[in-house]
Amino acid sequence: MNKKPIKRVVIAGGGTAGWMAAAALAKLLGKNLSVSLIESDDIPTVGVGEATIPTLHIFHRLLGINEQEFMAATNATFKLGIKFENWKAQNDDYIHSFGFLGQGCWAAGFQHFWLKGKEKGMVTQIGDYVPEHLACREGRFAVLANQEQNHAYHLDAGLYAQFLRKIAEQHGCKRVEGKIQTVTLNEDSGDISSLTLASGETVEGDLFIDCTGFRALLIEQALHTGFEDWSHWLPCDSAVAVQTTAKPNPVPYTRSIARDAGWQWRIPLQNRTGNGLVFCSKYVSDEQAKAALLANIEGETLNEPRVIKYKTGTRRKHWNKNCIAVGLSSGFIEPLESTGIHLFQRAIVRLMLMFPSNGIEQADVDEFNAQSRADVEDIKDFIILHYHQTERTDTPFWRYCKNMPIPDTLAHRMDLFAGTGKVFKKAEELFGETSWIQVMLGQGIMPKQYHPIVDMMSDDELQRFLNNIKANVKRKVANWPDVNDFIRHYCQSQAAQ
Ligand SMILES: Cc1cc2nc3c(=O)[nH]c(=O)nc-3n(C[C@H](O)[C@H](O)[C@H](O)COP(=O)(O)OP(=O)(O)OC[C@H]3O[C@@H](n4cnc5c(N)ncnc54)[C@H](O)[C@@H]3O)c2cc1C
């Protein structure tokens, strides 16, 4: 192991991942470190990745980022969930919102009360018991003082990288422009010792962060770390993306519309809409995918459709030798639940918690890799659920997804919910009970029974209990302003400062 103190961190790549890492390391550890970032103007960033989840607040709080300033700078809109259209069946939809579901008791979550209520004809859709779900449908939004409302953003990825770059440079990060041509390894340790650019310039470092995207220039091309392929569970391997003019009064959620061999996203920003079609090339050619996307967009196109190729899976180690992969270089699951940026920030925060100032310890590396692995495993199962649990058999793609073998861990969760209505979140898992419940119900799993503790309530008590929760949700959301009025005011008042 490299027992040299770590004084120089070199970040390779300046996409979302690179600038997130640079801003965090420079701002929070920059007094004791030299941080530099190399990016090439000749190699474009992947240019997508514009929907986020609420955990981004943690990263922004850590960096002291002001929400209004960030939203104005990145043309961001608020996101309260994702609407899944045609996933369970054609012309069927449901919302996975970011909120918490109703009110449970020590023994049983709210879904058990709702399930009995459903049996007795006392309830409406599950989303009526989650404020963020109702707010998605009514287009309302509020920033609440005690953060009791959960929201994320749709943002312009290019502007976000620029926004973070400013923070990184203000805190001493040195940007080096140039194409990395050679990665030099130390002959004895096998560690990376330097990166040489096309100009001939050499950048030496003690710790290297690989943010070179799918190229994985350091972690894979130089260190041959290995990749675990998950395409048998997540068969989509391509996307085509195009931007269109903005629609007035956009919705506060991402739209995910299942198509014949994949799905389409619509991500509304203040000034434009991001569109894309994720697809499986076994069933659809690039040209067919482009045509299918262009046939299903609104507004004028602002650029040429661009095809992106990828393989779903994970790097076998995210930290190998003195190199840590952050971003697409570490692997890619699927953009379906907007978890990419979340995983980048988890890796960055984890690195700071384990920062090897006095030299790299194998125990730190092993712990980092185990935690990274757990993060992606749980997310992977949640994403597979959307594809596998479907009634669709109308195309070869959906027949494959419906019949494919799934991980035992996911099969267990689905069986547990289907049989008993129970859902348990693992300690460090990203998606909580409300997420699993909304998606499992939305995809068509209806539990056979509810927890018997619900029978402690009489039918009248249950009806009152359910009605009260629903009325509270309705009252609360009715007080929230229109989301687009809110954004205009919020971002304009920032611009005026
Ligand atoms: C289709 C698709 C949709 C996605 N949607 C979402 C989403 O909605 N939400 C989400 O959270 N995530 C999403 N992601 C995942 C991820 O957030 C984005 O893709 C993100 O923008 C990727 O950032 P990156 O920094 O890892 O890679 P990139 O953007 O590819 O950046 C790579 C950087 O490395 C540099 N580089 C590469 N090679 C060299 C070299 N030889 N020399 C110098 N520099 C080099 C490039 O110049 C560039 O700066 C999506 C991914 C895909 C593929």
From TrEMBL:
<dbReference type="InterPro" id="IPR050816">
    <property type="entry name" value="Flavin-dep_Halogenase_NPB"/>
</dbReference>
<dbReference type="InterPro" id="IPR036188">
    <property type="entry name" value="FAD/NAD-bd_sf"/>
</dbReference>
<feature type="binding site">
    <location>
        <position position="79"/>
    </location>
    <ligand>
        <name>7-chloro-L-tryptophan</name>
    </ligand>
</feature>
<feature type="active site">
    <location>
        <position position="79"/>
    </location>
</feature>
<dbReference type="GO" id="GO:0004497">
    <property type="term" value="F:monooxygenase activity"/>
</dbReference>
<feature type="binding site">
    <location>
        <position position="328"/>
    </location>
    <ligand>
        <name>FAD</name>
    </ligand>
</feature>
<dbReference type="InterPro" id="IPR006905">
    <property type="entry name" value="Flavin_halogenase"/>
</dbReference>
<feature type="binding site">
    <location>
        <position position="341"/>
    </location>
    <ligand>
        <name>FAD</name>
    </ligand>
</feature>
<dbReference type="GO" id="GO:0000166">
    <property type="term" value="F:nucleotide binding"/>
</dbReference>
<keyword id="KW-0274">FAD</keyword>
<protein>
    <submittedName>
        <fullName>FADH2 O2-dependent halogenase I</fullName>
        <ecNumber>1.14.19.9</ecNumber>
    </submittedName>
</protein>
<feature type="binding site">
    <location>
        <position position="337"/>
    </location>
    <ligand>
        <name>FAD</name>
    </ligand>
</feature>
<keyword id="KW-0547">Nucleotide-binding</keyword>
<keyword id="KW-0285">Flavoprotein</keyword>
<keyword id="KW-0560">Oxidoreductase</keyword>
<feature type="binding site">
    <location>
        <begin position="14"/>
        <end position="17"/>
    </location>
    <ligand>
        <name>FAD</name>
    </ligand>
</feature>
<dbReference type="Pfam" id="PF04820">
    <property type="entry name" value="Trp_halogenase"/>
</dbReference>
<dbReference type="InterPro" id="IPR033856">
    <property type="entry name" value="Trp_halogen"/>
</dbReference>
